[in-house]
Design brief:
Length: 280
């Protein structure tokens, strides 16, 4: 009889985040390992792996267990041979992600999952925080949840373009092509796998609520943007080289703390998602 591989999962907080031990993600995953990771990701929202020196090919292979790796969807019309895995010094554009967000919600089908690896990090600072949008939704009062279940919000890239600064000329131009383009997503998303409800509005891209007046929508969004910042829903990760984070964009938001001035090189890939659906 073949022995079963059982991974070790250590929760970082009660609601979100677990450290995973007992697996080398630079190598192909056994089916039983893949199943354990899928279940943990559904339950915990973000998983952390340490001491994982992934090449771009290994990063792509690992991400493929959680969906189809794709080039950055924020950039419209990528080259046919564009690589899914990218690596860059994020210091010049650190303000772009220093706001609570899910990745690229201003496209019709936002990414399902993101994998991020620390290549070179600042001596101090550059942490990332994640917050459970399941927990944020469930902490609202029942009348508020019922109200939000029937609403939709407009997402655009306008604020991201402004915050991106000197990203690079090519990327800024490409992002600018999306400036002003808008998509509509439900305020509350039903997770495509778990069926659980999660808040799906974020301060980075949500500008208004379709069913409300401008003033009403602004107030409701302000309440929700502040609500998701509660420490009750969060985990904070201090990176070391070759740490890898895998997270579920349907169920968590994240925030990259811009409190550093030196190089912060990260390797990143996202997987294809589907159009979000709401409760109604």
């Amino acid at each position: 009889m073949t022995a079963t591989t059982t991974l070790d999962f250590t929760p970082v907080t009660t609601v979100v985040g677990s450290i995973v031990e007992g697996v080398d993600i630079t190598q192909p995953l056994a089916l039983e390992v893949e199943e354990q990771l899928h279940q943990a990701l559904r339950d915990r929202g973000v998983l952390f792996f340490q001491n994982q020196a992934l090449s771009n090919e290994q990063m792509d292979n690992f991400a493929s267990y959680f969906g189809h790796p794709i080039p950055e969807p924020a950039i419209p019309n990528p080259a046919l041979d564009a690589a899914a895995v990218g690596q860059a010094d994020l210091q010049p554009a650190k303000r772009a992600t220093s706001v609570w967000h899910s990745d690229t919600t201003f496209v019709p089908q936002p990414p399902q999952a993101t994998v991020l690896r620390a290549v070179e990090i600042p001596p101090v600072g550059g942490d990332t925080l994640w917050a459970s949008m399941y927990a944020a939704y469930e902490a609202l009062s029942a009348p508020m949840r019922d109200f939000l279940d029937g609403l939709t919000a407009i997402h655009t890239s306008e604020d991201l373009v402004r915050r991106s600064g000197i990203f690079t000329a090519d990327r800024s131009d490409a992002l600018g092509q999306r400036d002003g383009a808008a998509v509509v997503h439900p305020v509350v998303r039903v997770h495509p796998v778990t069926g659980r409800k999660a808040l799906f509005v974020n301060e980075s891209s949500c500008t208004s609520i379709v069913e409300l007046t401008k003033a009403e929508g602004s107030h409701v969004l302000a309440i929700l943007f502040e609500h998701v910042k509660s420490p009750d829903f969060m985990v904070r990760w201090k990176w070391t080289p070759n740490d890898v984070a895998l997270w579920d964009n349907c169920a968590v938001q994240h925030y990259a703390v811009p409190d550093y001035t030196t190089t912060r090189i990260m390797q990143r890939v996202v997987t294809a998602g589907e159009r979000p659906r709401g409760p109604r």
